[in-house]
User: Which sequence fits this backbone?
């Protein structure tokens, strides 16, 4: 596929996707507006509901933008032992893989329903990837925990890869799917770190942009992010993500 990516000034279609489950309000307050506000306009936005039963479909249908597509998975059956930790580790995998099956663009970007991007997110990452002939790029982001915001730059990590909300990669890599069994692993157990580890081991050309392109902030009523947020509200998370037979 190298010959398809030689033009460093090309403005290709970027497929942006959001896996979501019954978080209609925060989806419409955070992720969707920040994607639609991008300075780079040649993108499609694929929202995949993991069998959403709230008003997600209704709210998305009101978005009058032809770049937006929505698909709601028909079932959400048992997938793994339902613990708060496992929901965090593997929860988005099925919806994310469905989105990867739907992409049409030459590049792929992911944002979770409760995250936000800077307005130049796609533009900055694409230009960086094209200049460096990278197949996969990521960047720094702002994270907030217990009222304190820090810049996460991953300087001490090998490989140096930012959070999934900072990823941009060539679409032929969509053959790499999220592992629904990542919760079984002893390390790199989160669905996204499991995937990036396979990219790295496969020899994908990886670059890191020294720029903040996203914000990962606590959800309303919560004080931190990531696994700790799930553990702090374990009972609520178990009820929210309960599998339907």
Assistant:
């Amino acid at each position: 596929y190298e010959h398809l990516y030689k033009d460093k000034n090309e403005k290709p279609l970027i497929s942006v996707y959001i896996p979501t489950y019954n978080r209609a309000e925060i989806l419409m307050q955070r992720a969707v507006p920040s994607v639609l506000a991008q300075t780079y306009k040649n993108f499609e936005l694929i929202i995949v509901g993991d069998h959403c039963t709230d008003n997600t479909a209704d709210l998305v249908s009101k978005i009058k933008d032809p770049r937006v597509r929505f698909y709601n998975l028909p079932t959400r059956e048992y997938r793994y032992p339902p613990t708060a930790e496992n929901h965090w580790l593997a929860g988005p995998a099925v919806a994310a893989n469905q989105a990867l099956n739907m992409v049409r663009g030459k590049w792929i970007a992911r944002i979770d329903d409760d995250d936000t991007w800077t307005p130049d997110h796609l533009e900055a990452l694409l230009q960086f990837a094209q200049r460096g002939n990278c197949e996969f790029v990521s960047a720094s982001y702002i994270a907030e925990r217990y009222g304190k915001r820090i810049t996460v730059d991953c300087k001490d990590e090998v490989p140096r890869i930012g959070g999934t909300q900072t990823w941009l990669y060539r679409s032929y890599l969509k053959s790499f799917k999220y592992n629904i069994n990542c919760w079984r692993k002893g390390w790199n157990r989160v669905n996204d770190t499991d995937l990036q580890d396979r990219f790295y081991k496969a020899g994908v050309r990886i670059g890191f942009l020294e720029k903040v392109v996203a914000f990962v902030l606590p959800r309303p009523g919560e004080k931190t992010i990531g696994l700790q947020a799930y553990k702090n509200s374990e009972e609520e998370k178990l009820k929210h993500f309960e599998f339907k037979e």
